[in-house]
């Protein structure tokens, strides 16, 4: 070892080396920049662009006209250019929330090259940022004990496949020797076993609620609700297939019929409390549909049920024993008096009327449930709210 | 429940609903398309663009001139436009490998909006795809038993912080009741605890090698080698800070000094074989530097040591007890005859000479090591090769 090379020279060499592989076109500007007053600046270096816009849920929604009616879509704002760098600063401070955004460069959607923090939702990848304070503090990694988030494979004998789950175990699980209750948390159509732990912020919400003493330590199991998939795109033996609305095994009974395979695996693999009193199930949109059907199909399995913006509707054109005799199965379920049947939806959700009709039926039958209504529609903002409201009600 | 809505109508509503949140600007074309003969087409819909290029490690490298010398950089190819859709097809079939790429639209680096499968490396996010066959089959999720990949937090008393690890446990770990050997696997400068499990394909390589009987079932622990970080960008209580070369606690002794905290946590938390015979440590670039220093600092801790493109060099300008008395510590380490001391590097690596000098010193002292040389330089392709060569040599 005769060569003496100083650390700074070596760092320089490392930088150059990265140029070979990792730092192609690194960030030229700071974006997003969250100012002290919670206004936010977005910047993009794009000297040749003619028009640069930003679109995201931090902007006021705008009406989008379609042949099927008018819907709320994300707003769009123009950036202004100076010396090749485009910039937009929100005119008002943003409320505390986790926000998603992308740029549009001459109409082409691109991610922000200065912000490596991105989350995929169905077939879109967006950049995200968090404005802290109030409920959004639950979505942040704070200085509290952290649970473990694991990607775990299980065998489903019913489906004849190995499939992947995301499992949250609370801080201390590994060494406590204790048994824990289990909350099964289901995603919506087009999602997968990554959805709740990423945009849903499950680990952060549970870590924070448990640290505050508001939720009991619990295991949270996040399944993949498309029974034709092993795992999320790119993470299965099928390789990457583009996300699509052609989802062959999502709402035709397969997933619900195979659900006991998941519960059996979890009870065999983790230190769980293996009884109805210590099991909850909830889901968003299609996951709410699944939670409704699974909980009534196996009336001795779950004591807590949550329907978040649930796609509740009878599917008379789908033949599955799961969907037969719905009213009789609901009667059996409610006769056993579940500890909690919780329905939540936003006022502008396209499923609002379907949920109103469902609640009316429950009222007519005298079945007890709790109802929680928010503003806005079928969006992750609401699902994070519902999770942070529902989890504290469990296992008490 | 008087309203009868058919499944197809509901699916339609779901699609519209997604338009609100998840499907902003969904993919318009298929990209990348891997043809049967392993040529690959890249496509981008960008009607207003003047020039669209693709850059990535699937193209022949090109020389990049810098004030510090000439380096190999990724090649660039032009796409051609027809009806607003740009396309490039590789003239030759690609060899089996995991490849990274991005588009350049009028000079602006963008990810492929048709390929949600992306991996971050330091401050860049690139799209990836795999051409299977030969060694690259080890990088794919195959129909074999899968281990668990967990994001786990531990407390480091030495650093006074909670920090995050990625832990791979082999298939069957949860229920086998057995104890396992542990392989500590360290990233390079600018990386973090996600690097090896993402671009490094650790879980896939280990799953496949174990299923083939080529590697022993083992636990793999992937640390964060920057002692000032709790976790990867966006996943710590510090929020998202842009990646940078200003890494205050990477090669100044803190990480190495605190390493026993990691080993103690793992031995306390997992069913490990708690002795030198059943511990390995290896790392790439800076992680090779760390592995060299940690293994000689604690000569009774690791029986297997791997230096992958290691940043081996004495840092006479850094004061840390870790870096003192290097030659005496190496003597102690080699006098104890480690089962394997394995050095691997690529022929064009900027650290090639430093590794040659280090090997010469080992030769002069009569210290035994194995040497493995590949083509090319300081790139993930080599580090995946080194991992898949090194893991089968462990714990036998």
How would you sum up this structure, described in words?
Two copies of one chain form a homodimer. Chain A has two domains: 26-132, Immunoglobulins (Immunoglobulin-like, Sandwich), CATH 2.60.40.10; 139-393, Alpha/Beta hydrolase fold, catalytic domain (Rossmann fold, 3-Layer(aba) Sandwich). Chain A is 24% helix and 28% strand. Chain A contains ten helices and 20 strands. Chain A has helices at residues 7-21, 173-176, 195-198, 202-211, 254-257, 259-269, 286-297, 326-335, 352-365, 380-390; strands spanning 33-34, 40-45, 52-56, 62-66, 69-73, 75-78, 80-82, 85-89, 97-105, 108-110, 118-121, 124-131, 148-156, 161-169, 182-186, 219-222, 279-284, 304-308, 340-346, 370-374. An eight-stranded mixed sheet of chain A has the order 13-14-16-15-17-18-19-20, with helices on both faces. In chain A, a hairpin with a 2-residue loop joins β11 (118-121) and β12. Mean pLDDT of chain A is 88; it is low at 1-26. β13 (148-156) of chain A pairs antiparallel with β13 of chain B.
């Amino acid at each position: 070892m005769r060569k003496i090379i100083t650390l700074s020279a070596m760092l320089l060499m490392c930088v150059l080396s990265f140029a070979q592989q990792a730092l192609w076109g690194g960030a030229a500007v700071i974006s997003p920049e969250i100012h002290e007053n919670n206004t936010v600046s977005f910047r993009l270096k794009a000297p040749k662009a003619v028009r640069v816009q930003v679109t995201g849920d931090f902007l006021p929604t705008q009406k989008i006209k379609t042949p099927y009616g008018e819907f709320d879509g994300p707003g769009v704002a123009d950036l202004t250019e100076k010396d090749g760098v485009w910039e937009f600063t929100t005119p008002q401070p943003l409320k505390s929330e986790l926000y998603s955004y992308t740029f549009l460069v001459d109409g082409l959607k691109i991610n922000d090259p200065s912000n490596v923090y991105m989350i995929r939702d169905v077939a879109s990848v967006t950049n995200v940022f968090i404005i802290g304070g109030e409920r959004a503090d639950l979505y942040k990694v704070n200085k509290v004990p952290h649970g473990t988030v694991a990607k775990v494979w299980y065998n489903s004998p019913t489906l004849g496949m190995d499939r992947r789950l995301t499992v949250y175990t609370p801080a201390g699980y590994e060494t406590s020797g204790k048994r824990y209750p289990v909350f099964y948390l289901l995603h919506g159509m087009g999602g997968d076993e990554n959805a709740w732990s990423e945009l849903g912020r499950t680990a952060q919400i549970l870590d924070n609620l448990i640290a505050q003493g508001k939720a009991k330590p619990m295991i949270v199991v996040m399944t993949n609700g498309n029974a034709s998939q092993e795992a999320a795109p790119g993470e299965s033996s099928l390789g990457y297939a583009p996300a699509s609305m052609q989802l062959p095994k999502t709402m035709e009974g397969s997933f619900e019929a195979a659900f006991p395979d998941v519960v059996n695996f979890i009870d065999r693999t983790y230190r769980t409390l293996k009884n109805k009193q210590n099991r909850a199930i909830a889901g968003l949109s299609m996951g709410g549909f699944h939670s409704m059907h699974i909980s009534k199909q196996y009336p001795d399995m779950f004591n807590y049920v949550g329907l978040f913006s649930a796609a509740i509707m009878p599917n008379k054109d789908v033949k599955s024993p799961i969907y037969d005799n719905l009213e009789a199965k609901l009667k059996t379920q409610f006769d056993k008096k579940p500890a909690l049947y919780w329905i939540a939806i936003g006022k502008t959700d396209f499923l609002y009327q379907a949920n109103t009709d469902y609640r009316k039926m429950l009222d007519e039958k005298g079945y007890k449930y709790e109802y929680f209504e928010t503003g806005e529609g079928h969006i992750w903002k609401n699902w994070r709210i519902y999770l942070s409201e529902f989890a504290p009600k469990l296992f008490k």
